[in-house]
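Lecture notes, structural biology module. Today: joint structure prediction for complexes of two components.
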Amino acid sequence: MSIPVETFFLNPEAQGTLQAQIQQMIAQGILSGRLRKGEKLPSSRKLAGHLGVSRITVTLAYTELQASDYLESRDRSGYFVSNNAPEPPQFAARHPRQDSIDWSRALGRKFTGGATPVKPRDWWSFRYPFVYGQTDPSLFDHANWRHCALRALGQKDFQALTTDYYDNDDPQLIEFIARHTLPRRGILARPEEILVTMGAQNALWLTAQVLLTQRRTAVAEEPCYHALRDILTQSRCHLAPVAVDRDGLPPEALPESADVIFTTPSHQSPTNATMPMGRRKALMARAREMEALIVEDDYEFEMSFLRAPLPALKSLDTDGRVIYVGSFSKSIFPGLRLGYLVGPEPFIREARALRASVYRHPPGHIQRTASYFLSLGHYDSLIRRMGQVFARRRKVMEEALAGHGLGVAGRGVFGGSSIWMQAPDGVDTGELDRRLREKGVLIEPGRPFFHAAEPPGSYYRLAYSSISSERIPEGIARLATELALMR
Amino acid sequence: MSIPVETFFLNPEAQGTLQAQIQQMIAQGILSGRLRKGEKLPSSRKLAGHLGVSRITVTLAYTELQASDYLESRDRSGYFVSNNAPEPPQFAARHPRQDSIDWSRALGRKFTGGATPVKPRDWWSFRYPFVYGQTDPSLFDHANWRHCALRALGQKDFQALTTDYYDNDDPQLIEFIARHTLPRRGILARPEEILVTMGAQNALWLTAQVLLTQRRTAVAEEPCYHALRDILTQSRCHLAPVAVDRDGLPPEALPESADVIFTTPSHQSPTNATMPMGRRKALMARAREMEALIVEDDYEFEMSFLRAPLPALKSLDTDGRVIYVGSFSKSIFPGLRLGYLVGPEPFIREARALRASVYRHPPGHIQRTASYFLSLGHYDSLIRRMGQVFARRRKVMEEALAGHGLGVAGRGVFGGSSIWMQAPDGVDTGELDRRLREKGVLIEPGRPFFHAAEPPGSYYRLAYSSISSERIPEGIARLATELALMR
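The predicted structure, tokenised, for the full assembly:
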């Protein structure tokens, strides 16, 4: 039986080459049972005419489908659905008729309803996106990343790509972190003291699971990264928020009961405060006195384009008290999901066992690609380029903010990618955000960063990591106009 | 100042092209502070002579390093470390002098010491590897995977590659799963009922976290996949093992107290039993009666090369009681870490929120690559090719086992990739494994699959997913010899 040419349609929204689209259309017809074994395909001339593509494109698609056994060609009579083609299912698919489960009872634990706000997924469609932590396509080193990914897909790296690492990491990546990344933060660590994670957030999550219980007290900075607050809340520990000042977390304000202190000394998140060396030492001394552990989230240390960064807290750690969290996702791109934990071996061992249970290991291909990108120096070039651009943007931003007399609450002395802002009294920045969206401006309201039951409504964050210098002045002008209207 | 050519050495174990190695050597020299700004590099002729490479290779490396701002060239006088080169750290790296933390006290929870055995990482160096769940490089469709990965790295897919999905998945992949994968199992699901996970193990982990508490009872098959047992143990629920028979999990043996039933109807892991349709219906009825949920791990359903698979339990589910776990890692390669969960929306919503907290989302590049590999039909070709090869290997294996009179405990009627074996009474298969390793044979002792305090020592698993047909007879012969010696 011949299949009528009229039954073939290319999906108008499909991507990829025409040849790939044709292959896909036919393969899916076979897999869904619409095209059956032994049925004859239209001639390439006929199908080409029907679809409005060149005949050679159809011929190439048929040849490919033959190679993968979807089709077979019979002498002079054309192409047929192969007898070895994959079988469609022999039963109809069904959807549950009704959901008769009482899910409010069936769920053992609830994880929805956390502090982390939902950001607009289409931030790039806003003209003035002062959003934080997203990739700026104009800065990313696409060519070299692609090159490294390709290399990591090569025959030589087959093992690294496909292997089930059980609970191990890519040795090349671990070596680079130990020999090149950590020394730049003043840290020496052995491979057994390093664990690769699915981004910094995953590193914080693993740490919270290993160190905290319902009977332990965790200190979080107030305000702090909302996802960390979700992690700590889910761990069910006692959560003690400690307000930061312009130098970050004040050691003298730590509660005696603290077991684990989560801190961001390089750039406090979200206020951008950098903890001075004196306070770092005082914090270490206070933690020792209280026998507390410290978890140092050293995110964004690379973005120190104004002044060289201070050594990490971990580098002052003489007794194995500090757990260090680093990330590559931030600077390469957030979709990468690659970070690491550095800590004493007994801790890393438990975090590794937990990781193995949760998801075994971060995909080998990603680890290997990153290790090439790092070791060939592309990462450092990227960081440098980003630093130069961010420095320029920041200058434009500061001028614009000063020009409109907008209140800066924290700007960070080393650089970073955002400025922490305070609106005039009485302005609710949640409302400000809603109004600005209609004007094409995206900001980040500050409330979700606070733990307090009645968080201050006047703070907000403006990032310059995803907006070009040229657009900053107009974006800030719109912000200023809206603020003036709301006062 | 000129840098002496003698200080340059290529790492004899380095991989990659010579040009890349030279770039790496110089970039790392700069990053570590060994080569300083303004210092002059040896001429390309001199360095080429010293390293024993061609001059053009050095010139190309220098040009690349100049492009990425590590080096600058000065007219006629050669290459110098650029003034814009990245800064080396300004402080020395230090390692904690002593670990003064009492980690037995500091750890909130322990995750080490689970049931999952450590397999030899170098399994491919054994001549007769009857190992389970590893990639056979001779079967994997490297070229097409590479092609799809490349396409997913293209400019068009930049968003999919780099975006922070927050808590969402790649819409292309979800659509493929909903429209093509699930219907083949008799399942219809909407996108909100599907969650992409880091492999099937991660899907099981998320499910256990959402559904179980210390007050709930989970049924696990006895024997069962050891990693599942680790997951259930860590969730601290009551764990009720129920012995399987030749048809899998017997519904009448389920304890009244069961809240969640974990089962593998397609191929019971590790016995390979396939649950007949009658029992599937009885299991559904029993679960309804007890108001229990069912978690169906449908791993390896694609490897049904002897007979078409039965519809999934989930396809019989009229009241939203079944949570379905699928995986691509198994058939593509385990290092991929890609699976999915299908279940009622209220459940998927909580699993998604938990996933967002634990690691946000599986990397976008991997999701997009898999969606191309699937939609272009490569996945089905691969499955078919694997099925044909596995059928051949299985035949050779069964003949060899029969020839030596070795006892088969479970072989699975639909296919699969392994046979569950029983050694004669008195033979400890842990000891058998140790002895066989010296003979180049790898088997999987059965004890870790059992929950019982005194698990039977006579079972073992032989997989044919990573050993060629040609080597199977000799491997089985060595096994038979060793068994005879141990009796």
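Point to remember: The CA atoms of residues 75 and 297 of chain A lie 67 Å apart.
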